[in-house]
Structures are given as C-alpha cells and as structure tokens.
Protein: Transmembrane channel-like protein
Organism: Parambassis ranga
Amino acid sequence: MEKHKAVNFVRLLSDESVQSSLSSDSCEYYQTEIFDQLPSIQASRPNQSSHVEPCETSQGGPEPKEQLSHGHLSRGSKDKTSLQPLRNLPVCMQGKRTARDRRNMQISNIGFWESWRRSQSISRRRVSAHISESLSGLVPWRHTLHTIEGRFGVGVKAYFVFLRYLVYLNLLHCTLICGFILGPTAFYGRSKNSEPLRYGGNDSVLDFVLGKGYLDRSPVFYGFYTRGSLNLQCLNTPLLYFTGIITILFISLIMVVRRTTRGYKHTWMLGKRHSMNVSYKIFCGWDFTIQDPDAATLNRNFIRNDLKLFLEEQSFSLRAAQRTIGQKDDYYWLVKLVLQYLPPITITTVDLVLPVIFRKISSFEDYSFTTQVNVTLVRTIFLKLSSLGIYLFFIFTTTYQQRCWENHFGREMYKLCIFNFLATFCNAFLWNYPRKLVQEKHPSSCVARLMGKKHFLIPFNVLDRVYSQTVSWVGVYYCPLLPLIGTVTLVATFYIQKFTVLRCCVAEQRMFRASSSSVLFHFMLLLGLFMAAATLGFDLYNHVVTEDVMGACGPFQNMETIYNVTGVCVNSLPISARKTIGYLTSEAFALPLLVFEIIILTSYVSRGRANQRAIERLKDMLVMCSSDKRFLVKQHATMLRRRHIRPGCSTAPVEDTHLSPQKHAPPCTSTG
C-alpha cells in the first residue's frame, strides 16, 4: 500500500465522545489495517489510549468494556432509536431493511407486556404525527407564506410570520379583556349614576375617526367602566380592570421573551460558523415527491434564494478580508380633522423620512446586507420609540389636570392606531399600485425610470408593526378595546401587504439571513413592552402623588387608587394570608428571590456552555468523517490503478487485502 501524508486534525474530546457503544460484530472491522490508517483515528489515538481498551477478537478472549457496559451506557439512545419510524432513520434503504429485521427479531424475543408497550408507543407516535400534520394544515396563511418565501426569500417571509404572531398575541389580549373587563361589566352592569349609551344629539360619523362624542362614552375608553352591582371587597370592577391589564402585560412579557430566547438560542448555537453545504443543497435539496408544477417552482426558488444568500455572504467575506485599515368655512371639518391628527401626521412623517436616510448611510458603511438590515432596524426603532416617548410625555404634561384625562389619553392612542393603518392602506393603493401600473404600461417613460422598481423594505415594515403593537400596549389601560381594533387592523394589514408584495414588488437581488433579524424583531417588541409598562407605572405613581385630580371617571372614583382598593382586599383576608402577602411584598423576600434567580441563571449558562462544547465536538467529528471518506476514496483509487498496472496479478478481494495483509499474493513486476 502506498504511503500517504499524515493529516493532522484536532477534535474536541470528552468522556462522552471517547466511550463507544459498538457491538461485537463491529470489533472485527475495528481491528482491520485500514481502520488504523484513518485520519480520525490517527488524530484521536493519543487521547483515546487512556480511555478505551482494544477489542478482543479471539474466540475465548474477554469481552470489551464497551460491550459489557453497552446496555447501561446507550440503552436510552437505543430505545429511542428503536421506537422511531423507519422512514425517519438517517440511513440508507439497506440499513432500514436491516433495522426492520432486527426489530422483528427483538419482538419475537421479548415478552408480551414489553411487546404491547412498544406497539402502544408506536401507535401513540403515529397518532400524534397525524394530528400534528392535520393541525399544521389549519395554520392561517400557510400556503401564502410558502408562496412569498418562494418568490421573495425567507427574509420577507419572516416579516409575515412576525405579523401573524402579532395577530395571535392580540387575539389573546382580546380574550383576556373579555374575561376580566367586558364580561363582568356586561353581566353585572354599571353604576346607577352612569348615563345610558345612546347615539344621537351632537354625535356624528366623524366621531368614530376622532374618538369623540359617542365613541368617548362607549366601552372603547376608560371612562365607561364604573363600579356596578359587583362590589365585593376582593371582587369588584376596579380590581378586575387592573388585574386584566396587568395579566395582559405579564403574559405578553412571557411570550415575547420566550420567542426572543428561542431565536437567540438558535442564532447563538450556530454562532458565526454557520455555513451551507452547497453540494448538499445542489444534489440533495430537491424534493422528488413533488408532483405539482407550482410546488416544483416554489422548491426551485427556495434553493435559488439559499444559494444567492450564500454567495452574498461569501462575497462580503472576501471584501472584508481585502480591506485596509380662502374656502375655509366649507372645508372646516377637513381642517379640524387634520388639526386633530397633526401629532400622528408629524410622527409618521419623521418616521418615514429618517429611516430612508439611515438606510442610505448604512449602504456607505460597507456592512453585509444582513448587518445593514439589522443596523437600520436598531436605529429606526430607537427613533420611533423616542418620538412616541416624547409624545407621551407631552400628553401627560398638558392633559393631566383635565377632567377624565384617561379618556383623552386613550383617544390619542386610538388615533395613532387608526392613522398608522390608514398610512399603510394609502401607501399600498395610492402609491405602490399606481407606481406599478406606470411601470407596466409605460416602462420606458421618464416617470417610470425616476420612481424605479418597488422593493419590499423589511426594516421599515417590521418597525411599523412594532410601533403599532407598542401603541396598543401603551393604550390598553386607557382604551381596553384597542387590542380588538389592533387585531382587525393587523388582519387587514396582512392582506394589504400580501397584495403589495405579490403584485407591486420585485424580488430583492440581495438576500439576508432571517434568523438573526427575527431575534431582533422580538427584542424590539420587548422594548416596546417595557415602554408600555413604564408608562403605566408612571401613571399609577402620579395617582398616588396627586390624589386631588382622581375620581373623575372610570373604575377608580371617589379618591380611590389601586393601592387603596388592594389594601381593602388584603385587610379582609385571614391573618395567615395577610402575613404571607406581607412577607412576599417585603424586603426580606428579595434576598432569597435574588439567590434563586442567580442559581437558575447559573444553571442555564452552564447548560449553554456544555451545549456549545457538544456542538463544537460534533462539528469536528463531521470534519473527521469527511477526511475519512476522502482517505477511503484515495485508497480505492490506488487499488484500481494497481489492478490496471499489473494485469498478470491475481486480483484478490479488497477486504482480504486489508483484513489479512500477511496472505497477500507475491508481488508482481510492473510491466511499465
């Protein structure tokens, strides 16, 4: 056999990686000469010599340690593999047939109860798989998302998935509002002093746009909810109202943090070493079960977009490596409407102009396209949240001394929500669609060339959704039906944006990786939630400091605050419950709570580091497997060349050449 150059590879090893779970029949292969020459064995042999003893292949020799401890070490993994469906096993067809025969032999050798347990487990898995497959077909807009992903890439799809998630979140908010606020108010009624809800007098249709008149007296705003017949010490309208709002914010926090950590975990585990196996994508990426031409087109587009993304990242890496250091009365209602919507118009105008400037700036900073998207997202979200925060501070300082100022605050949030939806509608049908028609009818005109082709700008559209959801969270305390309004506008926005993408936009030539941006989407949503919680906390603090302005409208009247209402409820509880609540709200409980949080965080950090080490070890093992395959191919090519060079030699089987080198035929003289 020819001598070959030794390849030096380094692989991360641990106790788990050096322990083997090989059966006795594989020990014969492991004692062959060709196995000792594999690069992976040569690289790991100095480290494994102290952990693993060689297999004994003699008839009367002792069994290896791996074989003795095989049932204990890998029983869980074998059981888990034996219960998997054959089609899910990552082996070839012959391996699946072998696994099927082995399972049949195991079934014949086990008892009745074990056989029944395995059959029931397999049946449960099949039923669960069928149910999951059936439920996946009921997911809203599933086929629409596949179509968008095929034509515009996974980045645009990530925006629509984020939009669908916001719809789910607002539907959950509507359920909580109905359970805590609307339901008790409708069942028990309002206070006797409340005026009935009637449409008439000075009410007009314009009130539904401005949030005044009839809408101001309706269940949309804070002032509608007063104490009714439900007036117990620990079960009354103020407590239910406040509990519902706090529940909405708390559940939103849990859901957004969960989505953020899930995406961050995926991105962190991949790190910057993520790469795509181009050969796998080209030769194994096609789904041969496709029969529909449209599905085939979508699958081809998936592969094309992945390759474009990979080439874009490779191109940026190469560039980075080469761097060196009069009729006013007639239109009075229109003027009034514009004046009422002047703050939302100003905020929207600023949010439309400055992000375009940010986008142009990021294009000159020589970032990758994914980094450009993320940098623009961060800059624009701080712009939007800052403008919203300034506007909220202005409302607090100018309207806090008014009677029933909560309704006024909720009215402003209502107008922000409505105007944001109107801006989306007008942008789609009054700008993007006419722009597309001009380009189709007159593609060579000066106007068409000046406007250019429309691309779906993911950062700006995502930030619009984050901004709308932040407004909904901020205003839900003052306008309880704002989540319902938000749900309706989000569903309408989904179809409007679908029309914009599929009808008015062209595919982006540069792709970006959506995994890191999805984490950023939810992180910005988390910032909006914190802003809403800070606004509510500031309002409750002012209620305590300035009690003289309280009691105008809403659940908390007659100089009541949330602290007074909860204090009355706590004082009516038994002594043991009062002591428990007093301890949980005291400083003495803060220390054990802090210690518990530190322990939990430490355990998660340790688990994350262990997972990272395991991932690095698996990556190195994949590298070694590739080296072994190249080595075996080289040896096979060498043997084929020898057979052609020595035609007079007897051709022995390949495995005999490696298994018993001492039985080789006498060397032949080369004819060359």
Observations:
- The radius of gyration is 34 Å.
- Residues 96-137 form one domain.
- Confidence is low (pLDDT under 50) at residues 1-31, 48-78, 650-672.
- Residues 111 and 403 are 79 Å apart (CA to CA).
